[in-house]
Amino acid sequence: MVNIINKRKTQHIALCLKRYNRSKLVNDFNNYQFEHNALPEINYYDIDTTVIFLGKKLKYPFLISPITGGNKIGRKINQNLAKLAQKFGIALSVGSQRSALENDNFISSFDIRKFAPDIPILANLGAVQLNYGYNIEECQKAVDMIRADALVLHLNPLQEIFQPEGNTNFYGLQKKIENICNKLNVPVIVKEIGYGISYDVANRLYQAGVKIIDIAGSGSISWSCIEAQRQQNISIKMAAKNFKNWGNSTAKMLKILSNNFKDITLIASGGIKNGIDMAKAIAMGASLCGNALKFLQTIYKSEEKAEIFINEMIFELKTAMFCTGSKNIEELKKAKINFINNIT
Ligand SMILES: Cc1cc2nc3c(=O)[nH]c(=O)nc-3n(C[C@H](O)[C@H](O)[C@H](O)COP(=O)(O)O)c2cc1C
């Protein structure tokens, strides 16, 4: 089983880098625009972008979303991302730790705490595994393995359906997530992987005790297309094209969730393109923004490319803060942002 998981992880990296596997949907932040402040009354160099997440100080409200782990390439990527996250003072999530739970040889590819002692690191497992033999023991083991500050459980029904070796029994998961929330010694974060968390799902997660939700909406990868290329079944391969643009946009879901769940910490991810999207997301109620694909694309080439990407994001975030007169993240949360298009 572990070999299958690792082969899949390697294929995912290669396929995610292909442009034709992108969804045509957008993240919808283009439908929102800040009110420009021509008289900001702040010094650009005084802008403070720090935030507290999971009790730790971040220099920027930014998260490297879960990508990988397990195989050799995943190990290198995780190590480089950890060094990057530590250097820039941002949060980091590893990809699914299932391979390491099933074979100790793969634990080393998640062994990144030594490279990033100060930042929040998030453990990661597929929530559906709670229906395939995993329980609190496995969740706690994933957390302890990397001395994580929280556990991310990802929800990925569409991917599992298209995946040749997919686990498609999602029955009764809400109760099982509730059990993990009650027993785990760190907070549980629930995320999608590119299709978004709707109001209804957020409500059920809230009832289950989940206090942090990562929207992970549309605007980037099409998992149906990716999994279809690993499929032998012709009908499923054909169906994948019709699901290419499935999903809920990050901005739309963020607006709904932030209006309705005042005591859930929201992470906006899914197709976040630049630091202006990040600033808009914060102004619309997110505490943090995440990105996976862009980090994968850049770190895959070189650490330097990944640093250029982060620096661009930071510069755009700070410029958006400057031009909205927001001296710090608390002020950015109150910045005026207008809906400029009818997307409903
Ligand atoms: C190669 C690759 C592997 C991924 N594996 C995981 C995973 O193991 N666990 C998870 O929660 N999300 C995983 N994701 C999903 C991302 O964390 C993220 O939710 C998704 O890519 C949408 O965000 P983006 O638009 O910033 O890429 C993966 C993404 C990529 C590109």
What's the CATH H-level homologous superfamily? Aldolase class I
Overall geometry: globular
- Largest sheet, described in full? 8 strands, parallel, barrel
Reported CATH architecture: Alpha-Beta Barrel
CATH class: Alpha Beta
Helix-strand sequence: HEEEEHEHEHEHHEHEHHHEHEHHHE
- The SS-based structural class is alpha/beta
The value of Rg in angstroms is 19 Å
Distance between the termini: 43 Å
- Read across the widest sheet, the strand sequence of neighbours is 4-5-6-7-8-9-10-11
- CATH level-3 fold name: TIM Barrel
Number of E-type strands: 12
Mean pLDDT: 95
- Counting structural domains, the number is 1
The multimeric state of the shown protein is single chain
Number of helices: 14
**Percent range of helical residues:** 40-55%
Catalogue the unreliable spans. none
In terms of DSSP E residues, the strand content is: 5-15%
Structural overview:
The chain is α/β, with parallel strands linked by helices. The protein has one domain: TIM Barrel, CATH 3.20.20. It contains 14 helices and 12 strands. The strands form 3 sheets. The chain has an 8-stranded parallel beta barrel, surrounded by 6 helices. A two-stranded antiparallel sheet has the order 1-12. A two-stranded antiparallel sheet has the order 2-3. β2 and β3 (56-58) form a beta hairpin. α2 (72-88) packs parallel to α13 (303-322) and α12 packs across α13 (303-322). The radius of gyration is 19 Å and the shape is globular. The relative contact order is 0.18. The mean pLDDT is 95. Residues 12-13, 16, 65-68, 95-96, 124, 152, 154, 191, 193-194, 216, 219-221, 269-272, 291-293, 296 line the site of flavin mononucleotide.
